[in-house]
């Protein structure tokens, strides 16, 4: 009997990208992973990110913006940053097993139409690949 791997997604504000990643991993592989998210300077969950998740049929229940400090003393099998700034600020996060850096443009700063839906799709594709690769190990 194996236990679930713990994954912490980190972004600066814990408003959009890391919230999306947390919800998507819970949706994609709930039997394999416990997903969490946090920010180095948390704010509030972006309503457009929540709307994009809702449109995809992904549960947003329990999502809230949290500080990385809230997870002090906890261990994670994977810590995944979703922007370069968070990667620089969290490169030595205690309790991190494997540290992975992904970089997605903040949809709030994107001039692209449907930026939130596009970012959600990009993150979802990366998470599906992550689950596939880690399953084969």
Task: Explain briefly what this protein structure is.
With 137 residues, the protein is an alpha/beta fold.
List the helices and strands and how they pair.
Blueprint: E1 5-11, H1 17-28, E2 33-39, H2 47-56, E3 76-81, H3 84-89, E4 96-101, H4 115-136
Parallel strand pairs: 1-2, 1-3, 3-4
Helix pairs in contact: 1-4
Question: What can you tell me about this protein's structure?
Answer:
It is a single chain. This protein is an alpha/beta fold and 137 residues long. Helices cover 36% and strands 19% of the residues. The protein has four helices and four strands; from the N terminus they run βαβαβαβα. It has helices at residues 17-28, 47-56, 84-89, 115-136; strands at residues 5-11, 33-39, 76-81, 96-101. Helix 3 (84-89) links the parallel strand 3 (76-81) and strand 4 (96-101). Helix 1 (17-28) crosses helix 4 (115-136). The model has no long low-confidence stretch (mean pLDDT 92).
CA-based gyration radius:
14 Å
What is the SS-derived class?
Answer: alpha/beta
* Helical content class: 25-40%
SS elements, strand count: 4
Mean pLDDT over the residues: 92
Strand content: 15-25%
State the low-pLDDT regions, or none.
none
Tell me the overall shape. globular
| End-to-end CA span | 16 Å
Main sheet: strands, sense, barrel: 4 strands, parallel
Please count the helical segments: 4
Q: Numbering strands along the chain, what is their spatial order in the largest sheet?
A: 2-1-3-4
- H/E series: EHEHEHEH
